[in-house]
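FAQ

Q: What does a record look like?
A: Structure on top, sequence underneath. For example:
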């Protein structure tokens, strides 16, 4: 659950397989910071137990970690939970729940006065909410990621819908320009992209983000 640019040294020192990465990233101008990130994740099939980490997340300007909502396939049954990975600061992982193919999970990450709050809700069922002491972080990267170790992209498209991302400031180009596609590795489709400004808040809306498959 770590972005490659942050943890290259750890990958070199590890005896396990390096992760394969596919992700889209929205980068803010230096004068702006993210204040919320929400949407709905459609749960794909899970072919087998393996190190499948699928997640939306936020990364800070100091590149010290990733704040993320992670769909985890290691047990052979999907589990989703929120957390900060992995140190600086060291925080306990949040609570979560199991999901299966065809479920939808609404995720919402919101900056409060003293912490960021993550809420996950499965359809009309399970719901969890956790606070993370990350108010000192300035988040400037919003990410839609697929992180695979020892497995391939064999679960089909990954679809996020009803995405809303807010930031401080007035510059909207970070939303309406095409996102960074790491290593040009991912076939993807965006729909329904729009941006608006109210006072000193930018609201970016994306109808859907579909990571279709590897190139």
């Amino acid at each position: 659950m770590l972005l490659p640019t942050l943890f290259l040294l750890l990958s070199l020192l590890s005896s396990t397989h390096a992760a394969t990465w596919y992700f889209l990233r929205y980068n803010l101008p230096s004068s702006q910071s993210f204040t919320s990130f929400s949407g709905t994740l459609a749960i794909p099939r899970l072919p087998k137990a393996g190190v499948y980490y699928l997640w939306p997340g936020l990364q800070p300007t100091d590149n010290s970690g990733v704040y993320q909502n992670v769909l985890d396939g290691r047990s052979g049954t999907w589990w989703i939970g929120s957390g900060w990975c992995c140190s600086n600061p060291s925080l306990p992982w949040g609570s979560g729940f199991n999901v299966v193919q065809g479920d939808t999970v609404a995720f919402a990450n919101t900056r409060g006065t003293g912490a960021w709050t993550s809420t996950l809700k499965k359809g009309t069922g399970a719901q969890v909410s956790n606070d993370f002491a990350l108010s000192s972080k300035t988040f400037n990267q919003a990410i839609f990621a697929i992180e695979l170790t020892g497995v391939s992209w064999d679960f089909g498209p990954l679809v996020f819908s009803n995405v809303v991302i807010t930031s401080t400031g007035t510059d909207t180009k970070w939303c309406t320009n095409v996102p960074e596609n790491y290593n040009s590795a991912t076939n993807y489709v965006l729909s329904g992209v729009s941006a608006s400004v109210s006072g000193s808040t930018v609201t970016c809306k994306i109808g859907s983000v579909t990571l279709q498959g590897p190139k």
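Q: Is there anything notable about this one?
A: The chain is about 5% helix and 55% strand.
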